[in-house]
From TrEMBL:
Tree of life domain: Bacteria
Protein name from the UniProt record: Glucose-1-phosphate adenylyltransferase
Keywords associated with the record: ATP-binding, Carbohydrate metabolism, Glycogen biosynthesis, Glycogen metabolism, Nucleotide-binding, Nucleotidyltransferase, Transferase
Provenance organism: Nitrosomonas marina
PANTHER family per the UniProt record, alphabetical: GLUCOSE-1-PHOSPHATE ADENYLYLTRANSFERASE (PTHR43523:SF2), GLUCOSE-1-PHOSPHATE ADENYLYLTRANSFERASE-RELATED (PTHR43523)
Residues that coordinate or bind alpha-D-glucose 1-phosphate: Y111, G176, E191, K192, S209
EC number: 2.7.7.27
NCBIfam families in the cross-refs: glgC, PRK00725.1, PRK00844.1
Subunit structure: Homotetramer.
């Protein structure tokens, strides 16, 4: 399927000599059973997308069209999605999305850390003769113009630029903490401290790394080789490489505020949907009148693979049997057959049968919700068949005996939990 891009996404000289490397090999254990059969970047999001579609779309929209995706953990779902949905780039113009599965190319071990994942693909990167390497995580939801990040990197004559964002102090221990001087040169970097320091003048916030880096290519190669020979290193960018480089080299921070696309109320949108609670919250936010993430922007679209499906259908209009949805997103192929959906996000091919009720729910593709079922504050995994009359979300103690219930009261339902045969060929 060919895609067409407007002139605002055309490549210019600053992005012609950069290659993007998306690290997409992680499991994401905090998402519990959602990553039993797929890597975190392949987890569905937003009704029709996968999480990895966001960094991939940011690359394409920024004019960065030499893209490699590094895979490792349970990658088949991710590989199939990229093959189906991201083959539209034109190799005749040196545009591509290429998959780099873990192959033990340099040593007989799988990737030991994020830096090692890049190191084991050095020979591949050398063949492309790029001036810069853009390193991205494949598991965050955001919209960012990487061209602005690269321009700042070049302007400051940096050897490494780290994208950063402000987060509430109570959440900062999950990230690398950055301290900068008046010129935004990084003067300190602490990886995931138990007691993170606050930003000067902002006692309730911390400046953290987004896991987005721009390196000068030769500099990156030299540092990866040095790190590879360091027996005391865990070969990770956040734990080892960046703390080593900060006092020795020209390392700058880039404010996400300066390159974020579609900020709601002037606040940059960046989500680590790495827990079931965070995943539920980010999806449910999309159903609000004005969500923090704009998926309707034609100037910065999120590209993906999607099946050719019929429109959503709502049937029956009796007083006690009415197919209806309120404050919800309903994807193609869905049939709301005499049931009620409120404040929920339904992925494709979901059937809500008569007299059932779905509230504050995230329902993944190909789910069949039986008659008289009641679901509230749930995430339902793909291919579940919800039994007739099942009630979930009203008694946490009872639910926890069969399903996974989070500390915030969100219930995750999977086919295994329902005692059903698994069909996870995605």
């Amino acid at each position: 399927m060919k895609q067409h891009f407007n002139s605002g996404t055309a490549r210019n000289s600053i992005t012609r000599n950069i290659i993007a490397l998306i690290l997409a090999g992680g499991r994401g254990t905090r998402l519990k059973q959602l990553t039993d059969w797929r890597a975190k970047p392949a987890v569905p999001f937003g009704g029709k997308f996968r999480i990895i579609d966001f960094p991939l779309s940011n690359c394409v929209n920024s004019g960065v069209r030499q893209i490699c995706v590094v895979t490792q953990y349970k990658a088949q779902s991710l590989i199939r999605h990229i093959q189906r949905g991201w083959s539209f780039l034109d190799g005749r113009f040196n545009e591509y999305v290429e998959l780099l599965p873990a192959q033990q190319q340099i040593k007989e071990t799988w990737y030991q850390g994020t830096a090692d994942a890049v190191f084991q693909n050095l020979d591949y990167l050398r063949r492309h003769h790029a001036d810069y390497v853009l390193i991205l995580g494949g598991d965050h939801v955001y919209k960012m113009n990487y061209r602005k990040l690269l321009a700042e990197h070049v302007e400051k004559n940096a050897e490494l630029t780290v994208a950063c964002v402000e987060v509430p102090l109570e959440e900062a221990s999950a990230f690398g903490i950055i301290a900068v001087d008046d010129n935004w040169r990084v003067v300190d970097f602490i990886e995931k401290p138990d007691d993170p320091p606050a930003m000067p003048g902002h006692p309730d916030k911390a400046l953290v790394s987004m896991g987005i880096y721009v390196f000068n290519t030769d500099f990156l190669f030299d540092q990866l080789i040095r790190d590879h020979h360091d027996e005391n290193s865990a070969h990770d960018f956040g734990k080892d490489l960046i703390p080593y480089l900060v006092p020795r080299n020209r390392v700058y921070a880039h404010r996400f505020m300066d390159s974020c696309v579609n900020m709601a109320a002037g606040i940059p949108y960046w989500r680590d949907v790495g827990t079931v609670d965070a995943y539920w919250e980010a999806n449910i936010d999309l159903t609000t009148v004005t969500p923090d993430l704009d998926l309707y922007d034609k100037n910065w679209p999120i590209w993906t693979y999607q099946e050719q499906l019929p429109p959503a259908k709502f049937v029956f209009d009796d007083d006690k049997r009415r197919g209806q949805a309120f404050d919800s997103m309903v994807s193609g192929g869905c049939i709301i057959s005499g049931g009620t959906v409120r404040r929920s996000l339904l992925f494709s091919n979901v059937q809500v049968r008569s007299f059932s009720s779905v509230e504050d729910a995230v329902i993944l593709p190909n789910v069949d919700i039986g008659r008289n079922a009641r679901l509230k504050r749930v995430v339902v995994e793909k291919n579940c068949k919800i039994p007739e009359g099942l009630e979930v979300g009203f008694d946490a103690i009872a639910d926890s005996k069969k399903f996974h219930v989070t500390d915030k009261g969100i219930t995750l339902i999977t086919p295994e939990m329902l005692g059903q045969r698994i069909h996870y060929l995605e």
